[in-house]
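S.,

Sequence below, as promised.
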Amino acid sequence: MEIDELIGNEFSRNIGLLSHAEQELLLKSRVAIAGAGGVGGVHALTLARLGVGKFSIADGDSFDRANISRQFGASRRTFGKNKAEVLAEMIREINPDAEVRCLTEAVTSDNLEFFLEDAAVYIDGIEFFEVAIRRQLFSRCRQLNIYGVTAAPVGFGSTLQVFAPDGMSFDRYFGLKDGMDKVEMAAAFAVGLAPRPFYLAYLDLRKIDVAGQKAPAVVPACTLAASWVATEVVKILTGKGAVRPAPVYQQLDMIKGQFVRKRLVGGGRHPLQRFKKHLLLGKLQKLRGNNGL
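The prediction came back faster than expected:
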């Protein structure tokens, strides 16, 4: 199908908010999404309907009943099926001409180069506790001049951080370094994602399973995160609107009705961030109990 035909039909309602040239650029661009679950899957489908035409999607997991509440690829029909393959099929149902590179395994140091090949933007949809591979991905994106975007569902809200190739690095923003164990990295990642922890007013911390690497998540937060990510992709690819890379962070909590956009001066090295990480680390270690990660 010709691009002009796609723009004139499937994506015609985008025109007016996107120009024809901007829509064409999206159709010719590739995004790489690691993770096809609660956030990665919604990111992929939102971008497909926005008219992004090329995808690299990686996920080694399969859908099950616990995914129904927040993962748009999950249904009785898809239980037991690989998440990346299901999302690839759904994208092609939206746009039969979409080019989808599907990895039915998690991103690792062995397949990272293939996963990021030709990508204009990398989108983080990896499980929260998997911080080590995140470090590798964002570091390699920086080297390859690729923008990296992460938007985490937190409570009934979302956070947003954009990492520009020439801006503050992922490790510096989150205060991450070699030698940290998995729980310490998770604590540093959490306080960097949400410097203003609005969600603590209503989150039951006892429901966080540190050993099982599970935490509460709801679908409104996932769809909000996807909306933020898709808009940032448009800005990055078309130049439409200002991109505010790290150390800027943004948070919106829909239960509390609070929004903040600020610069995290010094990133994870800031004394207040280090203090918050120390407090959260103590709570996570207590929750972990005798079941180490």
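The longest helix spans residues 219-238.

Coffee later?
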